[in-house]
Design goal:
628 residues; alpha/beta; Rossmann fold; Zinc Finger, Delta Prime, domain 3; five-stranded parallel sheet; 9 strands; flat; disordered N terminus
């Protein structure tokens, strides 16, 4: 068969190679296929991604953050040779219990040959910055003398019996045989009992390290045989600095507000925080990848529409592997984690919008409060999360009011500190305390409600109207300590200087005090003015209910001291019988207690000398009657 004369482009595409082997000629469209050299762009296989929590797992005690007390204790113990036979590590999830156990096993079995820079090490030590003979295997949980067991899946006595049998034999390679039992509180009662003797007097070559999140479920007999270390939650500033270092190592960017949100959401857990940070980096990199894909599908497609010879040329290959690769690895794909992205990812509400919602509530503006909640819900914030953030804001305001401006400096930005400081200066502590209690109740109710958004709206309505009402002490101050009217209803007018007349006389003074207290904040001035007006209305509205209570007391046989002119005795009469107790309740005008003592209890024993009364509660008696 005669050879076809080929062009340079066909030589590059490999068409002649097919003809030289005697195969049939390819169709004309065949040369348009991708060049055969494409797989050579990535000669190495892609490595599996390792999450940040595993990639940056501490390898030495110096890498641990927030556990300085434990590190100092272990350093002194290893230096003096006072190494216990068992250690109990407790703390919340993701705080570093298992990692600390592995580092401890590495320190117990640390061995290093002498080098020109460092001497040999053949004894337990905390200084393990240079990897030793067994370090890699121990940290990867594949050393034959460091046995890790998950007590959550190995709870029975048979599993502990295997450990006891294995403890008799000396280690194969290392100095000590270390048993790491995670989630030790999951062991059965029989398993704990079987472990006691070996734990109390183990062989010299055996060490135990336990880790648990439920320290109260571990028997006291086990705790007394171990040295206990409580790994504390990591503070927000420490977590932020740790995340900042990791962000720099990963080549990404992150705002401080975003890192603060992640640190607060982690709740002191390093692993939780790294998981959120990992997700935030991936979420923020999506925009860069999308933009890069659009450019790649545009500009690159235009170049790909040329002739086959041009595509197969070396110049195009250089462009594909050079400029295109540079753009792919440059700033286009660099992640930038922002606070808005973190809030959207976690379903959190903006702190500034939460403070706006708090402003509407403290003004008593129910409509604006509901609109603010609806806006937060539309942007992805869950109703319970919005109430929780609102309660957190009330707590921060109360803390700053009680301790000063530095009470929450580590969790607030400069703008947030300014706004929260204004709330602390204008709102009273009783109002903040009532708002806190109502929010806690609202969070509980919303969790049980079939419609959480409706429950959250009702809670905001209650808080808004509560903020518009005066507190009891404001009502008392407005009344000026006036005595209540003695007659039924409003039949007997109050005397001059008492009752509502005293309130009218003190009105200008109260208005002046309210205006001076809120002069710096016009937004809250209206609230203070409504509080004073509400106090006047509350006095008039509450007189009828107070008179009704007085009528009930008279129906029960109580005499009104105001009508009879009798004054209370200076000293209570001696109590010699149960009837005296009932009379004492009546003398102190406790109608509810007197009714319960008359109708809902049966006397068992009365000892006047010992001051003891034994009563049998009849049906209808409240359980807390004994405390009254």
């Amino acid at each position: 068969m005669a050879k076809k004369k080929s062009t340079g482009g066909e030589d590059a595409s490999g068409t002649n190679a097919a003809a030289a082997t005697g195969s049939a000629p390819r169709p004309l469209a065949a040369p348009v296929a991708a060049p055969a050299a494409t797989p050579a762009r990535s000669p190495l296989p892609a490595q599996p991604y390792v999450v940040l929590a595993r990639k940056y797992r501490p390898q030495t005690f110096d890498d641990l953050i927030g556990q300085s007390a434990m590190v100092q204790t272990l350093t002194n113990a290893f230096a003096s040779g006072r190494i216990a036979q068992g250690y109990m590590l407790t703390g919340v999830r993701g705080i570093g219990k298992t990692t600390t156990a592995r580092i401890l096993a590495r320190a117990l079995n640390y061995e290093r040959e002498a080098t020109a820079e460092h001497p040999a090490a053949h004894r337990p030590t905390i200084d393990i910055r240079i990897p030793g003979r067994h370090c890699a295997e121990i940290m990867e949980s594949r050393h034959p003398d460091v046995i890790e067991m998950d007590a959550a899946s190995n709870t029975g006595i048979d599993n502990i019996r295997e450990i006891i049998e294995s403890a008799r034999y000396r280690p194969i390679l290392a100095r000590h045989k270390v048993f790491i039992i995670d989630e030790v509180h999951m062991l059965s009662k029989g398993a704990f009992n079987a472990l006691l003797k070996t734990l109390e007097e183990p062989p010299d070559h055996v060490k135990f390290v336990f880790a648990t999140t439920e320290i109260r479920k571990v028997p006291v007999t086990v705790l007394s045989r171990c040295q206990r270390f409580d790994l504390r939650r990591v503070d927000v500033p420490e977590l932020m600095q740790h995340f900042r270092n990791i962000i720099g190592t990963e080549g990404a960017l992150a705002d401080d507000d975003a890192l603060a949100l992640i640190a607060r959401a982690a709740e002191g857990s390093v692993r939780d925080g790294l998981s959120i940070l990992d997700q935030a980096i991936a979420s923020s990199a999506t925009q860069g990848s999308d933009a890069h894909a659009e450019r790649a599908s545009g500009t690159h497609a235009e170049r790909a529409s040329g002739t086959h010879a041009e595509r197969a040329s070396g110049t195009h290959a250089e462009r594909a592997s050079g400029t295109h690769a540079e753009r792919a690895s440059g700033t286009t794909g660099r992640s930038h984690v922002t606070a808005a992205a973190v809030r959207s990812m976690l379903g959190l509400a903006d702190r500034g919008r939460i403070l706006d919602l708090l402003t509407h509530l403290m003004r008593g503006d129910a409509k604006a409060s509901l609109d603010a909640l609806a806006s937060l819900h539309k942007d992805g914030a869950e109703p319970i999360q919005a109430l929780t953030d609102l309660a957190d804001a009330v707590h921060v305001v109360s803390r700053i009011k009680a301790t000063g401006a530095d009470g929450a400096a580590d969790v607030l930005s400069a703008e947030e500190r300014r706004r929260v400081g204004g709330f602390a200066a204008q709102l009273s502590m009783p109002l903040l305390a009532r708002a806190w209690q109502m929010l806690l109740k609202a969070i509980e109710e919303a969790g049980r409600a079939p419609d959480q958004f409706a429950a959250a709206e009702m809670a905001l309505i209650r808080i808004a109207y509560m903020a518009d009402l005066p507190s009891p002490d404001e009502v008392i101050r407005a009344l000026g300590g006036a005595s209540l009217p003695a007659g039924r209803g409003r039949a007997v007018p109050p005397q001059p200087g008492a009752g509502t007349q005293g309130l009218v006389d003190q009105g200008p003074a109260i208005d002046q005090a309210a205006s001076s207290a809120t002069g710096e904040n016009p937004d809250l001035a209206a609230t203070a003015e409504r509080d004073v007006g509400g106090a006047r209305l509350a006095v008039d509205a509450g007189l009828d209910s107070i008179d009704a209570d007085l009528d009930l007391e008279r129906d029960l046989g109580f005499d009104d001291p105001a009508e009879s002119g009798a004054s209370a005795p200076a000293l209570a009469p001696p109590i010699r019988s149960f009837a005296d107790v009932v009379d004492l309740a009546g003398g102190r005008r406790d109608a509810k207690l007197k009714v319960h003592l008359d109708e809902h209890v049966s006397l068992v024993k009365f000892d006047a000398n010992a001051g003891a009364i034994d009563l049998f509660l009849l049906p209808g008696a409240p359980p807390e009657l004994a405390n009254d």
